[in-house]
Amino acid sequence: MQLAPPTLGLLIRKHHAMSKSTDLSPAATSTAYRYGTMQRSLHWTMATIILIALAIGLYCSYLGHGSAQRQFLMDIHKSLGMTALALLIIRIPIRAATSEPDWRHKPPLHERLASKIVHLALYALMMLMPISGYVTSSSEGRKVPWFGLFTLPNLLMENRPFGRMVGVIHHYGGYTFFALLFLHLGAVVWHRLIRQDEVLSRML
Ligand code: HEM
Ligand code: HEM
User: Fold this and answer.
1) Is the full-model pTM beyond 0.85?
2) Does the CB atom of residue 135 touch ligand 1 within 6 A?
3) Scanning 2, 42, 150, 185, which has its CA 20 to 30 A from the CA of 122?
4) Which atom of ligand 2 lies at the shortest distance from residue 126's CA?
């Protein structure tokens, strides 16, 4: 049966309105074109913590083992890393429960796919780095303090060869993190300066 154009238009609008109300959670609809407040706060807090932890980790790799400065900085590194892990545990369910914000002008599929892959890899490293750091420290019998306020419980038996092995994962994970952040920040700068599109404003 052929529908007259006004009837067809009405049906399309009705279908669009229905799919809007079912596809998007309230948190996402209230912040259309932008990540929700919680996601933005967690992104920027964790970005700051992780960038400082990475810089300290890198700097410490040039310091002699056992020096007082290295000890002091490593304690801060561990505290920041464990804080990032605690925030990630809050962030993942929030992210899983909300959809991505809508686009005003959707970028091509290959760009959205590439950013999805980098974001997923960043989430994986945000999980892997603190866990491998904790396992290295604990199984080598070293303490994991939290900003001098208390010491986290050591859940592992001392096993130095295992600790060293996981330390290698932490080491290469750190360099992979730098490479992915280079891509992530490069993409943001490119979108902002060359494309001049909405990508950065979605996270502001
Ligand atoms: C977001 C979290 C973290 C990031 C991005 C990170 C990154 C790094 C980087 C880049 C290094 C220097 C790599 C090297 O040259 O070996 C490093 C070293 C280290 N990190 Fe982490 N780290 C994180 C969390 C942690 C945590 C939570 C702990 C412990 C509880 C930890 C313990 C260590 C230790 C012990 C080293 C020195 C390894 C060695 O020299 O043998 N890290 N980290
Ligand atoms: C400091 C400079 C940073 C800037 C300017 C920045 C910017 C952005 C922007 C604009 C987005 C949204 C992209 C989109 O709408 O598709 C985003 C998403 C994301 N960023 Fe960053 N970012 C920074 C640092 C970091 C750091 C250090 C991490 C650490 C892992 C990180 C992890 C992520 C993740 C995982 C997402 C995906 C969010 C999601 O969809 O759940 N960012 N970032």
Assistant:
1) yes
2) no
3) 150
4) 30
